[in-house]
Amino acid sequence: xxxxxxxxxxDWRPTDDDTATLSLSDDRRLAYATYGDxxxxxxxxxxxxxxxxxxxxxxxxxxxxxxVRLIAPDRPGIGGSTDASVGIAxxxxxVATLLSHLGVESAGAVGFSGGGPFALACHRLPEIERxxxxxxxxxxxxxxxxxxxxxxxxxxxxxxxxxxxxxRLQRWxxxxxxxxxxxxxxxxxxxETDALGADEVARVVRADMLTAMARGPSAVVREQRLLxxxxxxxxxxxxVPVAVYQGRDDxxxxxxxxxxxxxxxPRASLELVDTxxxxxxxxAGDDALAAVRxxxxx
Length: 298
Known about the structure:
Blueprint: E1 20-23, E2 29-36, E3 41-46, H1 60-65, E4 68-73, H2 91-101, E5 107-112, H3 116-121, E6 128-134, H4 147-158, H5 160-176, H6 180-183, H7 198-212, H8 218-227, E7 242-247, H9 255-264, E8 268-273, H10 277-292
Parallel strand pairs: 3-4, 3-5, 5-6, 6-7, 7-8
Antiparallel strand pairs: 1-2, 2-4
């Protein structure tokens, strides 16, 4: 099993060598990367939409500090994973195969942004004991939906071809612009972490955007459509502890969404963070990993 190279983000670009690939029962390939401590407590990371395993690199240093082995798969059609019509309710089946392949019997799960519902869906797996949400999207009837989300959701349902063209254009521009261009979609300004400077964070975010649509935008469009419809996950049925982290200045996901998720989940805690969307990942990711690792309870 390969892990991402330990080199500065400024010099790094995602390649096939950065991920391992698992063959699923229906002959699909599931690509994934691991970060943090190779011998640490397993934690599943569900990337955003659009997004990929690459963004989990921003949590590599805190994962090492907390003794966490961060397992970051690409969902179908993303990065090196074969495309397929896999919905939110289907995703846990892929995860179960991956965890079994890695010999994981107990794990936590972290969902960032559009990865939130995919992480919550995994609560039905016996291996998943705790969940943390970082700036997570909510069901259409939970909280309030921002203008960008409303626009993208409407296009995904009624004009997916137009949304696909928009994403293709964004990727084309991102390939030719400074990395800060990609950050503008998820943050007011580029954050820094204890391990990565702002320039390195920006390069990771751009690489994440490019990897998300390496096979074209169809998978991203499909996920946007899934997120804009009622979820197949009943929040009242989520029995595991859930730690919700929500940015007070998040322009992508309304703070009311984080509050509403915490109110509706039976065993949830809420922490509001003085930051924006991407900042919630970089500022609260450390706490999220601590909350879901094996020997910690929410």
